[in-house]
């Protein structure tokens, strides 16, 4: 047997095993959700028997002709994938790492959703075997899709025509058309909700404006202060709802201008025109943009400020000389970070941690870059923070950074038999009896447990508090990891059940009765389009489509594009990803999973999509 024959034989064996394990993983995905534990134990060995796939007497849904055909389709696909990978170690390594992350996220996330822990994976040898097979099956599917996209799909799209005559040169007229188009598409949602879509945070800082709660920086006070003029206008007009609606209309105009500017900038890039068209369609028709435009919430301006910042980094990465010649680019590079920091507390960490990467990237112009990209940080940290302290605004939002620790300690106290010394140590840092602390534990959200932390005791003994957390981590590692994974799974698990947006109803906020009495929520415009779109957004049973409205999908999309840029050695494009990856890491420390937390990634995703195709410099 010569070397070529040996390699082909090895390729056939790998393809056969991968196809077979993929079939098993598909079977178990359905089988384990629809068969009782006793039935699963009885049928487990039949599932591992290859003859079950063509046994006509076998009636299980995973043992039918469909899976028999699917097996050979997968076998053919994996043969093609191995041909693409052969001799391409870079593709093999990058594709394997990304596929492994996605596969583990699927298996672990499914277990967390089902039993709020890792019992579905590690509780028995049986479950360990099942999980290994499922991970292998997912890995094979993801690796095939990633390999095909990296080597076939994206290069094919990149070869599409970019001749200037086939796509109109962007002008101010096209910019205005985009502004008007965004106004029309987004107004369909804005008019429907009167005066706006509410969420809990919105009512919190509007309540501060009315004096129902002390003015704090837990929800950045800047959001409350910019709402005051509209509240006053509404009061002068005899209806507060009018003032709030005017604020929404102003927000709509700003969003439309930013979106139009983004499309205008992207249209100047030397990328395939089909990509430009897709990006335009996404900004026009992706319903989350319109839904968020109708919400007076800190995450909306933060998301669009992030988009402007990412767009600036894209132009910087493409052409440094052109970037520094544009006064608009310099202005936006200063204004966008400031707005990000003013609208969300984690905006400061995103900008602060991104700045060193930007300076390193432009090391040949580091002085100019350092001045431009640190002005915002300095103005915010020393100017704004000093000002709000001077006017008496408290900053009790520091408790947010202990969300993960509160979840860890509460879960351990709830599920483990602690000795009295450990109980006493935990008791030092909470305001309620330990039993109440554990009763409030919810795997998916840390707000109930976080709210019981004694922030004064923690701030006075931060080292001891963190040492306690570290001690519990080594003593109960599995439980600690489960606590962290349960709270953060939506930011890396693509099937985490969530729906973006807020609510048009105030009845879900009984604690704000004094405030909600002043608002009217009345649907003043009905049309089939908005109703159908909202049903799709909230439907968790539509395959593939429902993933487009989940935080995990947004993160996966960014990681996919990031890996492709590494694969193609487009290292200059990695600068564009820096703030988004840092934003994702700050979201991991959030009290719970919310689509609006990653809205900055959502608004920037079409720009990230463009980085896959940018090859030439931007036109002047």
Protein traits:
single chain; 69% helix; 620 residues; 29 helices; mainly alpha
Describe this entry's structure for a reader.
Helix 4 packs antiparallel against helix 27 and helix 8 (200-210) packs across helix 9 (221-236). This protein has helices at residues 3-34, 37-47, 65-85, 89-115, 119-122, 125-158, 172-190, 200-210, 221-236, 240-267, 273-285, 287-293, 299-318, 320-325, 327-343, 346-361, 366-390, 403-415, 420-427, 434-439, 447-450, 455-460, 462-475, 477-488, 513-516, 528-538, 551-567, 574-588, 599-611. The chain is mainly α and 620 residues long. The longest helix is centred in the N-terminal third of the chain and has 34 residues, at 125-158.
Concise summary:
The protein has helices spanning 3-34, 37-47, 65-85, 89-115, 119-122, 125-158, 172-190, 200-210, 221-236, 240-267, 273-285, 287-293, 299-318, 320-325, 327-343, 346-361, 366-390, 403-415, 420-427, 434-439, 447-450, 455-460, 462-475, 477-488, 513-516, 528-538, 551-567, 574-588, 599-611. It is an all-alpha fold.
């Amino acid at each position: 047997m010569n070397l070529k024959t040996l390699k082909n034989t090895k390729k056939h064996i790998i393809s056969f095993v991968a196809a077979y394990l993929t079939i098993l993983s598909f079977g178990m995905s359905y089988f384990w959700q629809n068969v009782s534990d006793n039935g699963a134990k009885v049928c487990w060995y039949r599932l591992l028997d290859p003859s079950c796939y063509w046994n006509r007497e076998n009636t299980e849904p995973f043992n039918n002709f469909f899976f028999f055909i699917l097996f050979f389709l997968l076998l053919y696909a994996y043969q093609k994938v191995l041909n693409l990978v052969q001799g391409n170690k870079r593709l093999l390594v990058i594709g394997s790492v990304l596929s492994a992350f996605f596969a583990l996220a699927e298996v672990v996330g499914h277990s967390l959703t089902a039993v709020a822990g890792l019992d579905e994976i590690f509780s028995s040898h049986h479950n360990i075997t099942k999980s290994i097979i499922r991970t292998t099956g997912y890995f094979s599917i993801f690796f095939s899709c990633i390999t095909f996209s990296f080597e076939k799909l994206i290069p094919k799209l990149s070869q599409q025509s970019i001749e200037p005559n086939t796509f109109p040169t962007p002008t101010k007229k096209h910019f205005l058309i985009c502004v008007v188009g965004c106004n029309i598409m987004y107004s369909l949602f804005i008019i429907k909700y009167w005066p706006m879509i509410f969420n809990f945070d919105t009512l919190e800082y509007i309540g501060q404006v009315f004096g129902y709660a002390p003015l704090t920086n837990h929800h950045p006070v800047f959001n409350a202060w910019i709402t005051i003029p509209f509240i006053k206008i509404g009061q002068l007009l005899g209806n507060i709802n009018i003032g709030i609606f005017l604020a929404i209309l102003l927000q709509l105009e700003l969003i439309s201008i930013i979106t139009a500017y983004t499309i205008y900038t992207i249209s100047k890039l030397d990328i395939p025109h089909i990509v430009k068209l897709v990006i335009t369609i996404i900004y026009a028709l992706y319903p989350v943009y319109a839904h968020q435009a109708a919400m007076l919430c800190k995450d909306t301006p933060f998301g669009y400020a992030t988009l402007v910042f990412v767009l600036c980094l894209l132009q910087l990465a493409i052409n440094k000389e052109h970037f520094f010649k544009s006064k608009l680019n310099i202005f936006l590079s200063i204004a966008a970070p400031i707005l990000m920091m003013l609208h969300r507390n984690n905006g400061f960490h995103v900008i602060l941690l991104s700045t060193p990467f930007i300076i390193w990237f432009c090391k040949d112009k580091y002085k100019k870059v350092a001045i431009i990209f640190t002005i915002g940080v300095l103005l915010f940290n020393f100017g704004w923070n000093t000002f709000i302290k001077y006017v008496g605004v408290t900053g009790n939002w520091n408790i947010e950074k202990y969300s993960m620790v509160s979840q860890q300690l509460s879960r351990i106290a709830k599920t483990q038999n602690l000795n009295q010394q450990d109980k006493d140590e935990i008791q030092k840092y909470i305001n309620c009896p330990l039993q109440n602390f554990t009763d409030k534990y919810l795997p998916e959200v840390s707000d109930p447990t976080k709210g019981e932390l004694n922030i004064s005791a923690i701030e006075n003994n931060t080292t001891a508090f963190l040492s306690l957390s570290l001690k519990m981590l080594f003593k109960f590692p599995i439980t600690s990891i489960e606590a962290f994974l349960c709270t953060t799974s939506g930011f890396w698990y693509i099937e985490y059940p969530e729906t973006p947006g807020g609510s048009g109803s105030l009845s879900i906020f009984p604690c704000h009765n004094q405030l909600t009495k002043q608002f009217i929520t009345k649907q003043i415009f009905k049309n089939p389009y908005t109703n159908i779109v909202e049903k799709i957004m909230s439907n968790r049973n539509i395959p593939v489509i429902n993933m487009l409205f989940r935080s995990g999908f947004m993160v996966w999309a960014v990681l996919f594009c990031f890996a492709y840029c590494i694969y193609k050695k487009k290292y200059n494009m990695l600068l564009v990803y820096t703030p988004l990856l840092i934003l994702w890491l700050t979201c991991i420390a959030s009290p719970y999973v919310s689509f609006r937390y990653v809205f900055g990634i959502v608004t920037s995703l079409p720009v990230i999509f463009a980085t896959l195709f940018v090859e030439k410099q931007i036109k002047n």
